[in-house]
Amino acid sequence: MKLANLLSKPKWQDKDPGVRRIAVATDNDPSLVSALREILRADDDAGVRLAALKRVNDYELWRERSTADSDAGVRRMARDNYLTLFCADSGGPPLPRRVAELETLSTEEIEQVALRAALRELRADALARVRKPAVLAEAVANDRDPELRVQALERIEDAALLERIAERTRRTDKTVSRHARERVEALRIGAGDVDAITRRARHLCEQVEVLMREPDTAVQGKLEAIGAAWRKLGSAVPADLVRRYNGAREILAQPRSREPKPPQAAPRETETPAAAPAPRQRPDSAVASAAASAQRDRDQRHGLLHELEEMIDRFSATIDAGDSAAARAIRPAIDRLAAAVGSLPAALERRIAPLHARYADMERWLHWSTHKRRAAICDELVALPDTGLHPDALATRVRELRDEWQRLDAAESGTTGTIALTRRFHALCHRALRPAKPYFERRDERRRAHTEAVHALLARADALTPGSNEWKALAGLRLELAAALRQLDGVEPRERTALAKRIKHHIAGIAPRLEARARDVEAGKESIIARARALAEAPAQRDLPRSVRELQREWTALGNGRRGPDQRQWREFRAACDAVFGKLDAERKERDGVAASARAQALDVIGQIETLAEQDIDSPDAARQRLREIDARWSQLGNSERALDQRYRRAHDSITRLLKDAARTKRLHRYSAALEKYRLLRAIETGAEEPAAVAPRWESLGPPAPEFAALDARYARAGDPSARAPSFDVETALDVLVRLEFLAGLDSPPSDRQRRMDHQVRRLSAHLRGGESTEPAVELAALFAAWFGLPAGAPGELEARFTAAARAGMDNLP
Length: 814
Prior knowledge:
The chain has 35 helices and no strands. By secondary structure, the protein is mainly α. Helix 11 runs parallel beside helix 13.
């Protein structure tokens, strides 16, 4: 050994992960090769672990690392290689184990196995678990086994996909192509396709007509098969083909003439066998018997010598090759043959003697070398606790050293070497494993806990009632069982086989129930879809939304089935529900359109009446006529919207009030005109305005009412400077004011309280005497006339009282 190797670590133990990766992938160091299994589990670098895993390339390790490695990339690469070996013809476990491991694979991995596996039985089992139509179609097109291609084809229910398969395999597999087209035809017939039924019926008619030309012995079975196929067509067969088919069957039912059979040939006479030759005479002498026995002995000795020579040649070859184990196995055979032969020829003795001496030397050298190796093993065990290896790697290394020790024992003819060295070896093994003991105890605890969890899961599975309808719990239990089966590496090794059998037993019991449940759910959802489609085609009704909601509740109550059919059926169900709601939406939109049109008309009418309400009413009669027209249009619309009706009523009431105000204004026009003239007259009398400036406005007011003629007289006096006006009578003015304030409902000042009381007494006395009461309008006009007839010069406070009382009196008039 070189000094550099003694002073430095090998490259596969270098601190640089890149150096370790290259060394693990390429070096042939025996110590590296023996440590590969430890490296692929314990090295800190994922690339180094993957390089070691590729170097070992063992199926079990690929499978273990695909779930146990801490790096996702290593797990993915390990999973790919594991699946490659799983699908390969060789390099993997036996077929029964592969079939059992299918339970631990995902759906996508099972699909890969169904398409890639080299073993036909493995592909068949994986293909039976596949549900995706695209994968089945790929198997139909590319699988090497014709029977599997047909089985996969039988599970495809999509007519469009079957047509593509038939076209794809038209030139490569005519049997599959023809079978696919027959399946398409059968699906269309089952769906009620009239063209497909017609083609099939015509073909069956042709088959029946062909039977008319065949012998009777071959007709009956074929006719029954054709009849069964004809009955499957139902009642959609065209009438002319029905007549054609029935006519051909009637012809076949009639007896047909039979041709006579040719006479059978006469049996040939048997020939008499020739006489057997007489047996030879055997010699009977003692000389011949002794010669035969001697010849046998010579032949036997010759054979033994020949075999001994061959064995000596093999013995020499094994010694030359240094194969002590083979030489040790051959030597007893040489001794047995030599004893059987007896005295050996001198040539053989000369050949055997040096071989035995060489064998003894080889045994001595073997003992020396094995002793050296045993000492090296003990030295490695001494240093092993200080290497810092992972406990699993440490235990693996100790196990490998024990195996090597046993091989050394076997190489030395079953001896155990020096007893002291052997005792030291076993003590060092215990010492090396002592630091890993806590780790293994914790691992055993975890394994026990995991084992207890698996037992608890199986107890739940055992306690599950056989007729239980808790499908969600069953599906969850099925997933838990599959997960537990995949994770059996974490339980006690001695219980793995038994637990795996129990888990598979429960899975085998639950899976058919879930499949049956999935079929029931699928059938129930098909029924709901059919009812939803019927609702979509039914005429619109008020209870359609409630019916759809009931179907949705039934759909939810059914629960979930298989994912693929569930998604397909959900899309179909949603499409049917959308069709129902689409129809209702169309009708609602139509109603909304009619309502919108009616609302637009109502808004137009409301706009007209609101415009009328905002205008000044110059002609009440024209306004009333326009209001009647608008009312007629509003009544024809029949509006039911409360807000619009309230808006219309507000505008209508506003116009009504305006019309009433206009009529009242017209009735009170003589009072208001008289008051306006009186105001202009007061302006002239007080000198606030000139007569010339007031004259146009005076004339525009027109002549006053006859009872207010005093205004014109006062106006004439006011415009004549030479005219002499009489003096103003305050008492008369106060009497008029008190009476006017009483009529207007206003309070009189305290100074006129007695005057007002006197007026009330006079009115009461007149009423008691039976006098007729004067109407307010006539009384107001008389009071206006009395005030207008007073001379000019009324004090301002009296004028103010008159103006207030006059306005209040006019407001009280109806």
